[in-house]
Design a protein that fits this description.
Layout lengths: L1 H20 L2 E6 L5 H13 L2 E5 L2 H10 L13 E6 L5 H12 L4 E7 L2 E4 H7 L5 H33 L1
Antiparallel strand pairs: 1-3, 1-4, 2-3, 4-5
Helix pairs in contact: 1-3
């Protein structure tokens, strides 16, 4: 009996460590997905660097409580999978939300982004936030546009002055 308890304690520790390390975590109801659909989902998550697991809800609840994430406990009912995003906080939400649009059996339940617990509606909103790389590219693009306009304007002025001479 003691060995079984040690295994459970180790699993709770594992879940807790993953939850602490992850920038974004999303819980989803996956019951009803076919093996092919589940394989497709896991592939998409893996390609984005997102870890996808299924744990016993009681063990996940213990880990969440240890981290002070009481808001998650009410969402951990029935078969629930968890996606951990370590590099991009919104990647698990984006991928699961996009997949759920075409696969009605997958249902977002809740999530945590940087210590804040969100319900299904909050996770769906987070899914609309582009990845970090896209946001940086947009920011750089917004810096570049005024500089390009300034260069074009200065070039036009220089051409006008040289044609006037």
């Amino acid at each position: 009996m003691g060995n079984n308890l040690d295994v459970k304690k180790a699993k709770v520790l594992e879940i807790r460590e993953k939850m602490e390390k992850a920038q974004g975590i999303v819980f989803a109801k996956y019951q009803g997905l076919t093996v092919e659909e589940d394989t497709e989902l896991r592939k998409k998550l893996r390609e984005a660097g997102v870890e996808y697991k299924v744990y016993k809800n009681t063990l996940t609840t213990l880990a969440a409580r240890e981290l002070g994430l009481e808001g998650l406990v009410s969402h951990l009912e029935g078969p629930v999978s968890v996606a951990f995003g370590y590099e991009d906080a919104t990647a698990p939400a984006r991928i699961l939300n996009d997949f759920a649009k075409g696969h009605k059996k997958l249902e977002l339940k809740a999530g945590v982004v940087e210590g804040t617990v969100y319900d299904a509606a909050g996770i769906a909103k987070l899914a609309t936030i582009p990845s970090r790389e896209v946001l940086i590219a947009q920011l750089l693009g917004s810096f570049k546009a005024p500089l390009s306009n300034l260069a074009y304007l200065l070039n036009a002025i220089a051409e006008k002055q040289s044609s006037a001479e």
